[in-house]
Amino acid sequence: MNNNVTALQLNKETQPLLDMRAITKNFGAFTALDAVDFSLYKGDVVAIIGPSGSGKSTLLRCINMLELINSGTITFKGEVLGTEMRGERCIRAPKKVLDRQRRYFGMVFQGFHLFPHYTVLENVLAGPCIVGRKKRAEVTELGKKLLARVGLADRIHHYPSQLSGGQKQRVAIARALAMDPEVMLFDEPTSALDPELVNEVLDVMRELAAAGTTMIIVTHEMEFARKVANKVVLMDGGVIVDQGSPAHIFSGGGTERCKRFLSSLGLRENS
Question: What pTM, to 2 d.p., does this model score?
Fold first, then answer.
C-alpha cells in the first residue's frame, strides 16, 4: 500500500502543470508558432529568450488565451485551455470558460496597463473586486500586503502618474498576484524601463522565484535568466530551437543557433 501511495505521489509530481503540444499560431500567411511543444512544472522558473519576432510573446499570449491557437492543444492540470475542437478546427471556448481559465495565470505586460484614474491600491484591488466579485473590505488588507511585498507600502494612495516606471511595473506585479494565480507570466517586464529602474523590478521577481512561484518570463535580461531561472528556452522563427538548464545554455552546451544568438549579445561561453 505504501509503495502504491509513493508511486502515485511521484507520478503526480512528474506530471506537467502546463503542457503545450504541437501548437501552431498563424497571423494570416505568417506562422508565429510552428508546432511548438512546451511543458511547465510546478515551481519552474522558465526564461524564454531569443531574437525579436521569434514568437516569445505570442507563446505567452496563447497560454493565457489572449490569442487563439490554430492547431494543437494546451492543457493545464489536464484541462484543455481556451479551445474546443469542431472537427479538425480549433474554436474559441465560451467566454465564461475563458474567464475562469484565465484566473490560473497572472500576466505582467511590458507597458504596465494600470488604470490612470485609480490609486495604486485601487489598481491592485481591481481584479478581486471586478473579476472576483469580492467586496473591497474583504481584500483591502491583501492589497496592502502585496504592495508591501513589492516595496510600495508608502505609495498606496498615489496615482500612476505620480510613480516611476519601475514603481508602475511593481504595482502591475502586485495586481497580478492579487488574483492568486497558479502561474505568473512576464512579457519582457523591464523592456520599457530606464536602465537604472530595471533592478528594482528584477529584485521583486527574484523574491517571487525564491518563494517558489511558478513563472514563465520572456526576457532580454540574460544575467537574470542565468541566475534565477531553472530552465532556459531559446526561440527563433516560431520554434523552440534549444532548451535546458542555464548551465547548459550559457556554458556552450547549446545548439549552434543558441551559441550564435548569445555571441550576438556579446556573451561568451563560460562567461
Answer: 0.89
